[in-house]
Design brief:
With 224 residues, this protein is an alpha+beta fold. 29% of the residues lie in helices and 25% in strands.
């Protein structure tokens, strides 16, 4: 199982915060557990203690913020930036080591029976994926994106090129998204796919030199 807490600290240089408190106190987390009437999954509990109030939680998508809320049989732990989707963990799953995070796009249906949930990623993988998504969308200091609206902006062989300069994080792969990292999470990249054709690419790093180095290696038309 991935250790998202350690990896996110590397990615965001959180061990270099000079004592800045970014987590949530144990008393606050446990008071919310009592309000919910459950114990949070151990991984999520420790994530909140160590990373709970980090800026990467809210730079794009809003997730793992207290207070959590019930939505039927689910504890909602996040939502997309456009309020189109929520993510949650089933109330029967919190004691699992790495419970599945599920998503719903019709969470505002009037009847609970009409709300449908679908598997997203296991919790550890979800937390890391969201840190990367938020990072390439403004959470990391240096970031940029390119979208292929004309069929020519992104080279069709970009995914192959990435294999030579970065490592794919296979555990995070989704039908339309592939995640990459290099320099021991010194830089991360997100490749959007339409079938096998790349249609969006994003890259980010907390370090300016590393960021510029990989932009140079990719040699495609970013605006940043």
């Amino acid at each position: 199982m991935l250790n998202p807490i350690h990896t996110i600290k590397q990615l965001y240089h959180l061990d270099q915060t000079d004592g800045l408190e970014i987590g949530i106190s144990r008393d606050i987390v446990e008071s919310h557990e009592k309000q919910l009437g459950i114990e949070l999954p151990p991984l999520l509990y420790h994530y909140l203690l160590e990373l709970g109030s980090g800026a990467f939680n809210t730079s794009y998508h809003q997730f793992v913020e207290l207070p959590f809320e019930h939505l039927g049989d689910y504890i909602v732990i996040g939502k997309t930036c456009d309020d189109d989707t929520v993510w949650g963990i089933h109330v029967d799953d919190p004691k699992q080591l790495n419970p599945m995070v599920q998503m719903s796009r019709n969470f505002d249906a009037i009847e609970q029976s009409e709300i449908h949930w679908f598997d997203e990623l296991p919790l550890a993988e979800f937390l890391l994926a969201q840190a990367i998504v938020n990072g390439v969308n403004g959470g990391l200091k240096h970031h940029t994106q390119i979208y292929d609206f004309d069929g020519r902006s992104i080279p069709a062989d970009l995914s192959e090129k990435l294999q030579h300069i970065a490592s794919e994080i296979i555990e995070l792969r989704q039908p339309h998204e592939r995640y990459f990292q290099a320099e021991d999470f010194g830089v991360v990249m997100l490749l959007g796919m339409d079938e096998s054709i790349p249609n969006a690419f994003m890259i980010a790093s907390q370090d300016e030199h590393t960021f510029n180095d990989y932009i140079h290696q990719l040699a495609i038309g970013f605006e940043h």
